[in-house]
Design goal:
Blueprint lengths: L3 H6 L4 E2 L3 H18 L6 H11 L8 E2 L3 E3 L5 E2 L5 E2 L3 E4 L4 E3 L4 E2 L4 E3 L1 E2 L4 H4 L3 E4 L2 E3 L4 E2 L4 E2 L4 E2 L4 E2 L4 E2 L7 E5 L2 E6 L1
Parallel strand pairs: 2-5, 3-6, 4-7, 5-8, 6-9, 7-12, 8-13, 9-14, 12-15, 13-16, 14-17, 16-18
Antiparallel strand pairs: 1-11, 10-11, 18-19
Helix pairs in contact: 2-3
Amino acid sequence: MKSEKEKMIVGEEYVAMDKELAAERLAARQAIHRYNATEPEQFKERAQILQQLLGTCPKTAFIEPTFRCDYGYNIHLGKAFYANFGCVMLDVCPIAIGEYVKFGPNVQLYTAAHPLDPEERASFKEFGKPIAIGDKVWIGGGSILLPGVTIGEGTTIGAGSVVTKPIPPRVVAAGNPCCVIREL
């Protein structure tokens, strides 16, 4: 029998109020609180916190405070990743981000989803879908990526976009819902 954590990570329906998951969310929030409370020159301390919190965090990855996540261990950053202020990554499922990816301010990634049926929602059951972002992607400020989205290598997502479906490689895409504007 799978634990609630095992079900969560693979995208099956799970109970979010599970004791193990609640303890892990609290530990992540404590680490994020320390991260966001660092002084501007405390680069080494920030790097140490992220390397302990995240699933994969190369030394060349950098996230400006404030940053928020659910668990941290489901976030996998590639080399030379940069996120500007206000980044949110709700990582109930894996978030895989390629190399040389850049986020503008207030970019939000949501792997968490909830049942549409109100009675099911009231049962505290949730599910998730992973997010994958290819190498050399730029995501403009204020963009939101919904559960299950993939962004192809070399793509640019315009500021304020709401990405609801996969976006192919080497395109410029923008809007709500986000759609391809032109190929590169």
